[in-house]
Specification:
Oligomer: single chain
Number of helices: 5
Number of strands: 0
Radius of gyration: 14 Å
Structural class: mainly alpha
Shape: globular
Distance between the termini: 25 Å
Helix content: 40-55%
């Protein structure tokens, strides 16, 4: 399967919510809901674990629908933030503090674009 990269550099195709949705895996939904509820100190239910990826027009995890980075990328009509002329912006800088792996992915893409 081709990697699906979110605006922020998250690899959607490796996300447990994406995998659970793609495979219609109820066990994976329950496991992910339990894990994320603990990790994010939130009440996430298995039925919340439905996502076809940030850049899709299909189902998305609740947070993705209100994500500032996603909205910005859509407004600028870029494939992901590595393609933005303002990369790395303040929104991404804040995000990378909690998800540094997104920066690694986007930096790799950016280097490929600049080559």
């Amino acid at each position: 399967m081709e990697k699906i990269i979110a605006f922020c550099g998250t690899v959607c195709s490796e996300c447990p919510a994406f995998i659970a949705t793609k495979n219609n895996d109820e066990h994976k939904r329950r496991e992910t809901a339990r894990s994320w509820s603990k990790l994010y100190n939130a009440d996430i239910k298995p039925e919340d674990i439905n996502c076809e990826g940030c850049i899709s027009e299909g189902k998305r995890f609740n947070y993705c629908n209100v994500c500032e980075i996603r909205k910005c990328g859509q407004d600028k009509d870029v494939k992901n933030c590595a393609y933005c002329s303002e990369y790395i912006c303040e929104k991404l800088d804040r995000f990378f503090k909690i998800a540094p792996e997104g920066k690694i992915i986007l930096d790799e893409i950016k280097r490929g674009n600049d080559a």
